[in-house]
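Support request, please re-run this one:
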Amino acid sequence: MIRGIDLFVSGVFALTTAHPVVAPYGSWRSPITADATVAESIGISSVAIEGDAILWTESRPSEGGRYVIVRRESDGTVADVNPPPFNARTRVHEYGGGAWIVDGSMVWFSNFGDQRIYRLDAGGEPQAITPEAPLRYADAVPDRARNRLICVREDHTDPDNIINAIAAVPADGNGEQAVLFDGWDFVSSPRLSPDGSTLAWLSWNHPNMPWDGTHLWTAPVLDDGSLGEATLVAGGESLSVFQPEWSPAGVLHYVSEQSGWWNLYRVVDGVQQALHPDDAEYGRPQWAFASRTYGFAGNGDIVCSVNRRGAWSLNLLNPDSGTLAPLNVPAGEMGRGDLAVSGDTALVIAGDAGRPLSLMRVNLRDGSWETLRQSASVNVADEYISPAQTIEFPSTDGRPAYALYYAPRNPAYQTPAGHLPPLLTLSHGGPTGAASGALDLSIQHWTSRGFAVVDVNYGGSVGYGRTYRQLLNGNWGVVDVDDCANAALHLVHQGLADGSRLAIRGGSAGGYTTLAALTFRNVFAAGASYYGVSDLTALAADTHKFESRYLDRLVAPYPEGADTYRLRSPINHTDGLSCPIILLQGLEDQIVPPNQAEMMFDAVRTKGLPCAYLPFEGEQHGFRRAENIKRALEAELYFYSRVFGFELADAVEPVEIENLP
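Re-run finished. Output below.
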């Protein structure tokens, strides 16, 4: 069912001007231009509180996607920590995260260009503390008593045998590094107890991803700095544990999904205790390092973010009584689980339907909050903003699926009687991910021009428990495609979209879903794939270590299941393709290599279907440069205008579309 759509649709006309222009959907002029979408837009992540100072990371498209650590002092002064050209970004697991830590006035960060750790004291210049070597570092914690950092180290000395380990790195660069724990395919989250006596960490092996199953270990730190015998605390091959964390009193906490939902636990006298059993998610998939969904307040409460079927909230949990109380913070969406807590202050990256992801400071004494930084400048009247509306719809065999629906909205226009809008169906990446409910100007770019948008949380998405997430196991290219197609058809049946002008777009794994939907279903009339997968066999043979066995669960073990890979690969079934496609690809992508897009483009062009291909020099997996983000958005709009047959209100740079009649 769709909640609130009738009221909203009838309300659209109340927002129109006295003399609205009559114009077809898709052709409306909008103040939300591609320039406005990228202007002053940043990514915000990795928050920290250090004394009276607040720190966070900004990824800046205007600086070529450089990652900058920003420090805000108690008097409100703000300054960049790492000067250009230093880029605080690690490539461990390729997705990174946990690229820096702060301890007093000292910051250590991984520099993207050479992947060395640099030490930076206030007012000084960055000094490398690790050698020039094929080593990468992430997710560090300071071990003050031993003047070292304990971190994840990824050794690329042998590209065919990449080694991940927990390692100790001298904090000043003087001395040798030491491996503390290895022998597993992956490790993460080294966390030192407050007294420095015990280390906790996670490990897992192929073919698991960290949301499939992880092991939580602890071990004593011996006098020589090495680890004593490790003890398995929680987790297993089929049980995911997330974010081990020590309370200020030295009690180990973690998030585990042993109930079928990621809930909070602690260990007291060797006994695991569930703090608040709940059919909701208190964790999230560990795509990036140092993701946090909870932290400890000064009074002993736990500040925690909770996802209830796609909607996040910020809460206070009393660990002794199990009482959960919501904080009145606009946090319907939370950014990558970034949360920091100290005393009676919490920092959170959150947003909602009317607010982009923003850095917020919360006063835990009275629940008040303030915005310190927004990820985008929203200088647009509210009348142009289409709020996300949660929908539930029937998918294959009546199984429920979920999505966020955005109606077309622009007060300056109305459409000829009987016309329905084109629909843009979004398939999110991951595929173990979820649609974001925060205000996103790139979505409003479409709705303010007369497109309806539906952002699908297909089976496999997070936020709905382990059973829903595991629907995709063995069914990638089936369940996700079914849910995207059924979301679009549901809106057509509701009279909210033009069934002849349905488009689908997605990036990365969402790009694969897009290509599969266009190849294996006859629902969509056009599609846009951003760095999407067209050949599953090629991906299984040529991708980075972290995801190199991901498809074993999503598709089938390889090479035993090679027939299934061929069957599910859009590149092998272009005979089923009958609509135009635009493909956009970064040429330095190490996760989905450019040949995936190039193969698809050649096949579609050879078949004689309208198609376009835009390669971007210098871009990796996900576009980070402002000029490329703008170009991609305008190119996709131009592409739809040509294949759906509407005139653009504003001139944009054309893109070459081959085989266009």
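The longest strand covers residues 333-342. The chain has a mean pLDDT of 93.
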